[in-house]
Design a protein that fits this description.
About 85% of the residues lie in helices and about 0% in strands. The chain is mainly alpha-helical. It has one domain.
């Protein structure tokens, strides 16, 4: 892989990681819980991968508030089902 391609890949991975952190923190703040508690709950039902990371291309175009609302709604639905 060329240096430029490697740099672009790393940049994209960094963007996805930063977005994941933002989504967790915004959702936690909106629910009034700690980010670590939010991460634990999201991880328990598999939403970090299946929602935040796998839907990055769509979610990252939304506002911070909209992302938090989407994450919270999905979390509540998935926790209810489990």
């Amino acid at each position: 892989m060329e240096d430029r391609e490697l740099l672009l890949k790393r940049s994209h991975e960094f963007d996805r990681l930063a977005f994941t952190v933002l989504a967790i923190e915004a959702s936690a703040q909106k629910m009034g819980i700690s980010p670590s508690e939010m991460r634990r709950r999201l991880d328990k039902v598999g939403l970090i991968k299946s929602l935040i990371q796998d839907c990055y291309d769509t979610l990252h175009t939304e506002s911070r508030e909209a992302v938090a609302n989407d994450v919270i709604e999905a979390l509540r639905n998935w926790e209810r089902e489990k």
